[in-house]
């Protein structure tokens, strides 16, 4: 039973179609992440849920009620903005109090709610400060606090962590996950950062050009991307997508050859015919690189990213095709070296060369 | 070879540049000094002569007063300047309050809302700036007479409000454009009405520009002459600009007291300006840059 339902929602700005028919079902207490590159319509969709943009066609239902023409304030939502949107002239307490005052709550009630939110977010000592006297992370927490006090049915987050530095972003990710558990709330979260999506989401909705490309839980999307776009968007470093030719087919297992890299891949749909051109998708972490002569093709290392535990080697085939390989961080590899690589069995993906869809 | 030639030239060009900067600065200071003498001297002259007797004023008008005649001020005050000052304060405060309220509302709508013909409406508001008050004197006079507003405070307040709205709206709008729209949206999501967002979010954040725009309008209203001359006639509503004129006529023989009256008439606005001059300049540049 879906708690929030987005049904064939569309939106145009003049001639530009920002959303071209979007359907999403969201269950109660689910953490849904809308993920996609800039301009894919994810923020527009969030703003439509919030009531900040009108809905051209389609339906938005929250808790069984059609919300298309309901004012923002009456939709039972709270929104955390990318810029935090804290009122600069109000203290932390006044920032949190504003919505409660508008809703007509009495002072003791307001104080109790603010005290509770401040406790959850460790804001109690900061209640009388102005936003300008707070650090980025603290401001972020105030913005969340302002959303919490209103006890909404649905929380909306618009890229809330994008203004924070890397360390703080990680810390806030953990905070948000904890908050989701503690509040047992339904959350819709917009981001273009696939790490945030993978770590926070119960369900990821990958969007592109106003359409949904794939909906599913994070691991499902990582393991079975439906097309080359999703395959390339999820995972870091990005999946290698290579032109390949089918060399043999036996039931669900298809063997392909991509410039000398021979890979077996399992397919779901109709098997391709031998000799057909396909796109081979294989993640850097599913390739095994080693020095010396192995069974695979030899690769020239162009650049290395050492992360300590692992190293990402950006390499090039003799045929001029680029391939990223993740190798053991202990291996003393450097640009100019030659390595060979083989693929982990059963981890490759095949896509149609024409449509880009998963085979 | 080429390198050493470049290195050899560098100190000379630096010296030239520094000399140029010094000369520039000297010229700049000289110009500003001249300008400030031109602006400030008449005021100093006025204040000095306000303390003199008529004879002394004519015999030594450039000198410091022999005795400081404070009684000139009390006499001038007694001649009715107090009433004119009060009228000016009433007209200025009422005009500025109304102008700031209406302009900030208009600016808010122009900045955050979308409605048909928005640009045309903004342009027509700005168009008010090119209309000289003189051309509307006669029609305004007829309207005021027909509505029984002639010779009341409203006869001064309403036209002044109308003529200060365009520039004030322009200034406040320029400032409001810089306020992040997220603040309004956050407030709307929290249930605030547009009116509440205007009053509770935008107005407090616009305080600097409201001070500047208010000051600019206040100066204009305080010094306003032509409406004050045309739309009121009794002493009970005359503002200080006209009051001082009739005062000068009445005191043709006593220049010291007349100077004291003039000094009194500019004191309130001068003091306000000196206190708020930072806002005044800030307001003008904000309007200019954005």
Question: Outline of this structure?
Answer:
The complex is a heterodimer of chains A (359) and B (290). Chain A has 359 residues and is an alpha+beta fold.
Model description:
The complex is a heterodimer of chains A (359) and B (290). In chain A, the strands form four sheets. Chain A has a six-stranded mixed β-sheet with strand order 6-7-8-3-9-10, with helices on both faces. Chain A has two domains: 4-226, Rossmann fold (3-Layer(aba) Sandwich); 240-352, OB fold (Dihydrolipoamide Acetyltransferase, E2P). Chain A has helices at residues 42-50, 92-102, 107-120, 136-148, 166-183, 194-200, 218-223, 228-233; strands spanning 4-13, 16-26, 31-35, 57-62, 65-66, 77-80, 154-158, 186-191, 203-208, 211-216, 240-250, 253-258, 261-266, 277-282, 287-291, 298-306, 310-317, 322-328, 338-343, 349-352. Chain A starts with a strand and ends in a 7-residue tail after the last strand. Chain A is an alpha+beta fold and 359 residues long. Chain B is mainly alpha-helical and 290 residues long. Chain B has two domains: 2-49; 73-289, MetI-like (MetI-like fold). Chain B is built from twelve helices and no strands. The longest helix of chain B is centred in the first third of the chain and has 48 residues, at 2-49. In chain B, 35% of the residues are buried. The chains are: A alpha+beta (359), B mainly alpha (290). Chain A binds chain B through residues 50-52, 71-74, 77-79, 81-83, 85, 87-89, 98-99, 102-103, 146, 150, and chain B through 180, 182-183, 185-192, 196, 200-201, 204-205.
